[in-house]
């Protein structure tokens, strides 16, 4: 619960008495809102703020901040939640605008500081709800086909988790298997790959892939940290420390498919120099790093990972 006067009280006297809503002198007003009675937990306390408090229907109150517990009274005056702390005989008051919705109480003081407080018996329910909200916010839905991807922030970049599985014209599933597409995403030629990421995302450049490797500790160990914890043959799985979950989708060259379950190949948007067609990245089951390579023919098909614009 956000109370600057509570912080002052702690600084002035450990044995401070906490009076809530008593205006200038007590909790006897008839404006008490019984709907506020109960045990509350501040879910976003600032340093020094009380973490738990209980408001009783008779107007008394008890507050706890770490090892410090104080008590007093509470009330609602002119539709505002009023706090008064008595320290050494001196009363200090502060008022809050408040809204209550179910088991959530929002308090806003005149400085604009906001506290979200939750009924103690509903705290776990609140945490579960917030976790679901956070999870939903991390999802991305490709409006072209309705497929869902999780967004993963690594360093200063936001990536879509999982290989792209958008059925762009000319893209294929490994050995034409829809099950393979569902697991590893589709394979793309370079020109198709450059225009296959959804709005707001793009095919990463060689430099953006390099930045990714730097963010996770360097290219020599990046493969191990970015590879998924399952899906690689011969125990070639990674630690997936950053939830990138790189999977070995293999490749296609002319009419043949190669190395699914063993090697992941990902196009970059960086054009090759001279007779080199384009650059791509590799991760292999028996290596810990990210390998730089280039296509000198323009006939390969690889996986695509998308990074946010």
Give a written overview of the molecule:
The N terminus is likely disordered. Helix content is 17%, strand content 35%. Helix 5 crosses helix 6. The protein is of the alpha+beta class. The protein contains six helices and 21 strands. The protein folds into two domains: 120 residues, Lipocalin (Beta Barrel); 170 residues. The two termini are 39 Å apart. A hairpin with a 4-residue loop joins strand 9 and strand 10.
Write down the Rg. Answer: 29 Å
What is the number of independent domains? Answer: 2
The main sheet comes to: 10 strands, antiparallel
Class from helix and strand fractions: alpha+beta
The H/E string reads HEEEEEEEEEEHEEEHHEHHEEEEEEE
Query: What is the β-strand count?
Result: 21
Assembly level: single chain
Mean residue pLDDT = 84
The amount of beta strand, in percent, is: 25-35%
Low-confidence stretches: 2-30
Number of helices, counting only DSSP H or I runs of 4 residues or more: 6
Can you tell me the overall shape? Answer: elongated
Task: Note the gap between the termini.
Answer: 39 Å
Quick take:
This protein has 309 residues and is α+β, with helices and mostly antiparallel strands. It contains six helices and 21 strands. It folds into two domains: 4-123, Lipocalin (Beta Barrel), CATH 2.40.128; 139-308.
Q: Secondary-structure map with pairings?
A:
Layout: H1 4-12, E1 17-20, E2 38-42, E3 52-55, E4 60-65, E5 68-73, E6 75-77, E7 80-87, E8 90-101, E9 104-109, E10 114-119, H2 123-137, E11 139-141, E12 148-154, E13 157-160, H3 178-184, H4 190-193, E14 201-202, H5 206-215, H6 219-226, E15 251-253, E16 256-258, E17 263-271, E18 278-284, E19 291-295, E20 300-301, E21 307-308
